[in-house]
Design goal:
With 230 residues, the protein is α+β, with helices and mostly antiparallel strands. It has two domains: 152 residues, Hypothetical protein ph0010, domain 1 (Glycoprotein, Type 4 Pilin, 2-Layer Sandwich); 71 residues, Hypothetical protein ph0010, domain 2 (Dna Ligase, domain 1), CATH 3.30.1490. It has six helices and ten strands; from the N terminus they run ββααββααββαββαββ. It has a six-stranded antiparallel sheet, with helices on one face. It has a four-stranded antiparallel sheet with strand order 6-9-7-8, covered by helices on one side. A hairpin with a 2-residue loop joins strand 7 and strand 8. Helix 1 packs across helix 3.
Length: 230
């Protein structure tokens, strides 16, 4: 997993600039504007969507990047935002997880997906209380862009464990009408493939050692942008 900071080399990142964390390529990032600029815009879109929901107006875009608001984008970047895309938005408030909602497959424009998932992570993740105005100033945002899903053909659990790439793969597990996913970032807390798969099955509402012929596995990579800590 590679990590790089945005910025022009002349100063430290501002509060709303981001770091790019990539576990694979992403078609939204392979052409046109720099990866860091795109990350800044995606984070600003997410922050603005939350701020508007709180009745605060669009507050994030002005800080997104030197000289650039979200409504004045280069043509290549604007096109990328209007293409279908799938993302997860993760919020941490005062260093603790405060919401994570996303899309597995593209079903709307990337811009719409970022904004909708940001609002859902802030206000509709049932594990956490809704974000408040006071919380927003102490909340950092991560936007993870998902690559297309890749089927993982396996005949059993042992083969699945060998196929998984720790630190690289996000995994979608499906069986018997149950489904759950872990982003690649989860490997940081569950580095062992067996434990990773066990917890993923529990998340899906299945016994941690469940396996049957109806198991379907997909994997994917992400390019994630997280805000620099202040």
């Amino acid at each position: 997993m590679t990590r790089g900071r945005s910025g022009d080399g002349r100063s430290a990142p501002s509060r709303h600039e981001g770091r790019a964390i990539s576990t694979g390529s992403n078609r939204h990032l392979d052409e046109g504007e720099s990866t860091s600029r795109r990350g800044e815009v995606l984070i600003a879109l997410a922050r603005d969507a939350i701020a508007r929901e709180l009745g605060m107006g669009a507050t994030g875009a002005a800080d997104a990047a030197p000289g650039g608001a979200v409504d004045r984008l280069p043509e290549a970047l604007e096109r990328a935002l209007e293409e279908p895309g799938a993302c997860f938005v993760t919020l941490h408030t005062r260093g603790r997880l405060h919401g994570c909602i996303g899309s597995i497959k593209p079903r709307r424009s990337l811009r719409e997906d970022v904004e909708s998932n940001a609002r859902s992570a802030a206000f509709r993740d049932r594990r956490f209380p809704p974000l408040t105005r006071e919380d927003l100033g102490e909340t950092t945002i991560e936007v993870s862009l998902l690559s297309p899903m890749e089927p993982v053909a396996v005949s059993g659990e042992a083969e699945a464990l060998r196929a998984l790439r720790p630190g690289v793969d996000g995994v979608l597990f499906e069986a018997g009408g149950h489904r759950a996913t872990f982003l690649p970032q989860v490997w940081a807390s569950l580095p062992d493939p067996r434990a990773f798969l066990q917890q993923l099955r529990r998340k899906a509402g299945l016994p941690q050692n469940y396996w049957s012929d109806d198991v379907i596995l997909h994997r994917y990579t992400v390019t994630a942008f997280d805000e620099a800590a202040s």
